[in-house]
Amino acid sequence: MSRTALGLLIVAASLVPRAVVAEGGGGVTIEGFYGLERPPSTSFSAAVSGTTSSPDLFSSSLQMAGGDILVDLGGLELGAIVDTTFGSNTASQTAIGALGGLALGTGSVRLDLLAEAGGHRYGNLASNPEIVTASSTSEWLFYVGLRPGISVKLGGGPLSVGLWGFARWDVNSKDVPVTVGSAGSAGSYKLGGSTIGATLRLGFTL
């Protein structure tokens, strides 16, 4: 995650008034996460099929890192998220979105059932070794998604660990004209699709 994105998360957390956290709520939680995201597929079922049939899930997936801010309003949960992928010889993906849904559970265990929506950036298109030149180096698409997760507080303190699972769908798509191969043939690179993934999460509740 870039320093700018991390700075935005910290500033956003500082602007959340304590008064918006309803009595009995879980407060404001700042999290970092790391995991894997599958490359975009034509549909959710294709993404799942590609995951289950991959002989080497780690090397065929994109590594992901990011952070989120979650505000528990006594069962109703709102927040914001930013994350980015990285890997060799592939276009990067960055997502910035809003979160909303339910926070369920008692004691130290919490179940998050969230929806998300925001902007999905495809960047560094020329990183693909098959692409010689591209008419655009990055494009933003609008996406929606689902994000279930579970977390456990450590020793009843402010620190928590857990897991996120997620699925995202780009609402629109974009065809970027490119030049491919050693012969310099004209072609197009289609951006957009469905992605799934999972991450480990580490949080601190204010």
From TrEMBL:
Keywords, in A-Z order: Signal
Signal peptide: 1-22
Tree of life domain: Bacteria
Name of the featured protein: Outer membrane protein beta-barrel domain-containing protein
Protein's organism: Anaeromyxobacter oryzae
